[in-house]
Amino acid sequence: MSPPRRDNAPTVTTSGRNDYAAFRRELRRVAPNLTRPLPWINHEVPWAVLVSEVMLQQTQTSRVEEPWKQFMTLFPTPNDCANAPLSAVVTAWKGLGYHRRAKALHEAARMIRDEFAGEVPNEVEQLRRLPGVGDYTANAVASFAFHRPVAVLDTNVGRVLARALANRRLRPLEARSLAADLLPRKNSESFNQAMLDLGAQFCRAKPRCEECPMAQHCAWRQCGGDDPAPLSAGVSRPQSRFDGSNRQLRGRVLNALRERPHSRRQLLASFDGVEPLRCNEVLTSLERDGLITRVAQLYSLAGN
Q1: pTM for the complete prediction?
Q2: Architecture of the domain made up of 1-239
Q3: What does the pLDDT read at residue 264?
Q4: Residue pair 199/269 in contact by the 8 Å Cβ criterion
Q5: Out of 44, 53, 259, 287, which one is annotated catalytic?
């Protein structure tokens, strides 16, 4: 994919900080039109921000909103989550997939309760210690919950950087450096949110260049060439096919156990057409991950 260069448009370069300043000014100008009505944006409770960021890992925003609301109703504080059994947290995670994130969030809540007096830590280094929290999530919580001047770099932002600023594929270190250089000194959290919104709505995997409000400031749009976004910044990992996958089978097991404990025979009977050896692998993996437990031949959610 290569957008045609518009001869009457100014040439975009990325050789100096003045270019960054122009990009920042324009993004701030159009930011109000990019805002998405998501309940965790500008939320005043750091725990709510942390929960949203963990849920959003590898999951589309449209699938997160309702589970997030329900989760926050059940577990409005880290202590509420930490004091609940893991089975209750996994049950509340229904529909989100990647259930190891639920277990990690439960462990993070316990660490917050035990080591941080029930308050989400406000420094990137401390956040990075929490189970299930990587570089992106730590920076996102630090920025959006505590207004720390740190750049937030995810798949959406990585595409914007590669296309609009660099017009070439960026290595992970290059992307992190560029994101940090681009970050304004003031109100960095609103700038980070605007970058996420721009990437999510216009600078998609299949970009909406004709409608993008930042087209005049996009190096790829002005200069053309191959799309530099795929595999750029090291933050985009293609997901394996879901239908027929072990991920799907794991979800089916957990859905069944959310209702009540099941015997191994009952679980295997529900896997119509699936080889018994593969079913056993799925059950073993769920036990190994600490999501289910077995007493004799009866399986249940861990902590049930």
Answers
A1: 0.87
A2: Orthogonal Bundle (1.10)
A3: 86
A4: no
A5: 53
Cα–Cα dist 221/212, whole Å: 10
Identify the CA nearest to 149 among candidates 201, 204, 191: 191
Burial 61-97 (b: 16+ CB within 10 A, else e): eeebeebbeebbeebebbbbbbebebbbbbbbbeebb
N-terminal to C-terminal alpha carbon distance within the chain: 51
Length of the chain: 304
Is residue 115 part of the annotated active site? The answer reads no
Strands ordered across the beta sheet of 298-301: 262-263, 298-301, 292-295
In this structure, which CATH number among 3.40.80.10, 3.90.400.10, 1.10.10.10, 3.40.50.150 belongs to the domain 246-301? 1.10.10.10
Domain boundaries in the chain?
A: 1-239, 246-301
Alpha-carbon Rg for the chain in angstroms: 22
C-beta of residue 121 within 8 angstroms of C-beta of residue 49: no
Neighbours of 242 (CB within 10 A): 10
φ and ψ at residue 293, rounded to 5 degrees: -130, 160
Dig out the tokens for 280 from the structure. Answer: 């056993």
pLDDT lower than 70: segments of the chain: 1-18, 235-244
Q: What DSSP line would sit under 174-191, residue for residue?
A: HHHHHHHHHS-SSSHHHH
In the prediction, which pLDDT does 8 show?
39
